[in-house]
Design goal:
Layout lengths: L14 H36 L15 H10 L11 H19 L15 E4 L2 E4 L8 H22 L3 H31 L11 H8 L5 H4 L3 H13 L11 H4 L9 H26 L12 H26 L5 H31 L4 H36 L1
Antiparallel strand pairs: 1-2
Length: 403
């Protein structure tokens, strides 16, 4: 069974088990909604501090209720549907951008005791379970699939609007998201490669990846830092966050794929953007920063798991916001060049280097020699790739002169 990795579902399923699952689902949904509201407030407040402004400070203490006030205002606005739009798809598209983020967040271990081989298992009313909604055998693949499904919401929103500007914006957004999906997947593959379970084979479960990093064997340094950097950059581009927010393109495409949306449906796109940022931050914490795993100072281990996960997540989200306030927007050609000419070749080469190190370790090869040969091969491939780029650029210049 797909969800059978959770010890709660490994035995007899009675009413108590069903009730615990429903409670976990409600808690996960509540955390997502609250985290989205807090993320909007957090980003506005941090950006204002970095830019020497005040930021929201009227609604509630420190302006923390400003997001709620904005949400109520948007809900009361008129919900317009363009005359030439495909009405069913137009209404469905915003949901397709938000639901994948909810599903992905349900796969993230939010806490638990990972010390002494406990594997994050806690006990609730006599039942052993994990502090996550689901832990499928192919959890990492489900996360990658959900990130890909979000592209459909963006594309369908632009296509169904019946206007050329949203359509052009959705094509640009889809091209950007698909381009960085390959680098994202290759960096995740490097994590799976080094995250072994009890049999020494790489695991695809999020709980297993966190357990393999406990307490301090974080994939941040086990993979050699490079996959982490690639994943963060690719995730930022896939989230359409600055400096890769070319999807907005207000100077060219008005409001991109969401130009024709108003009222609550526009708010769904807005909320999905910040929910995706929180979810992606949680994925980064899980894959590279040990998730909830950390030292237990005093008290129950599951509580410290929650604390460490929250601290790591806030640090990652602060880095997202700091980047937004500090780095200027890149051009679209620079965005595509970075994805196809830098990140994908680097992610592929580094993954092959890790494979060579893993094979050399199993075959008792000299590790220094393996790293040296692998690095030389990567340098050679990089040189050949640069020669190919130069030849292509020169041919285009000659064709331009002839024309």
């Amino acid at each position: 069974m797909m969800l059978g990795v959770d010890p709660l579902l490994s035995g007899h399923i009675d009413f108590g088990v069903v009730l615990i699952v429903l409670v976990k689902a409600a808690i996960t949904l509540g955390i997502c909604l609250v985290a989205t509201m807090l993320m909007i407030w957090f980003e506005r407040k941090v950006v204002s501090d970095l830019q020497n402004r005040i930021g929201p400070n009227r609604a509630g203490p420190f302006g923390i209720l400003q997001t709620l006030a904005d949400g109520l205002k948007v809900i009361l606005k008129e919900d317009l549907v363009p005359e030439r739009s495909d009405r069913i798809v137009f209404r469905l598209a915003p949901v397709l951008t938000m639901v994948p983020a909810f599903i992905t967040f349900g796969l993230i271990p939010l806490g638990g005791d990972f010390s002494d081989g406990n594997g994050g298992v806690i006990e609730v009313f006599g039942h052993k379970t994990l502090m996550q909604l689901a832990n499928p055998d192919a959890g990492v693949l489900v996360i990658l699939a959900m990130s890909s499904i979000a592209v459909y919401g963006v594309m369908l929103a632009g296509w169904s609007s019946g206007s050329k500007y949203p359509l052009l914006g959705s094509v640009r957004a889809s091209a950007q998201m698909v381009s960085y999906e390959a680098a994202l997947g290759l960096s995740v593959l490097a994590v799976v490669l080094v995250s072994g379970n009890d049999t020494g084979i790489g695991t695809l479960t999020t709980n297993g990846i966190v357990n393999a990093q406990a307490p301090w064997g974080w994939n941040l340094w086990v993979t050699g830092l490079v996959p982490f950097v690639i994943f963060v950059v690719a995730a930022t581009a896939e989230l359409n966050r600055p400096p890769f927010d070319l999807v907005e393109a207000e100077q060219e495409l008005v409001g991109s794929f969401q130009t024709e949306y108003s009222g609550f449906r526009f708010a769904i796109f807005y909320l999905a953007e910040f929910l995706n940022a929180v979810t992606m931050g949680a994925i980064i914490v899980t894959l590279f920063l040990g998730g909830p795993a950390g030292p237990i100072l005093a008290g129950p281990g599951w509580l410290w798991g929650l604390v460490w996960f929250f601290v790591k997540l806030v640090a990652v989200l602060y880095a997202f916001v700091w980047t937004r306030a500090s780095v200027p927007r890149v051009r679209y050609d620079q965005l595509m060049d970075l994805g196809w000419k830098v990140l994908i070749p680097l992610a592929l080469g580094w993954m092959l280097l890790l494979v060579g190190i893993r094979v050399g370790s199993d075959a008792d090869w000299n590790p220094i020699l393996v790293v040296a040969v692998g690095s030389a091969a990567m340098a050679s491939c990089y040189g050949l790739l640069q020669l190919a780029f130069r030849a292509s650029r020169r041919n285009r210049e000659l064709e331009g002169v002839i024309d």
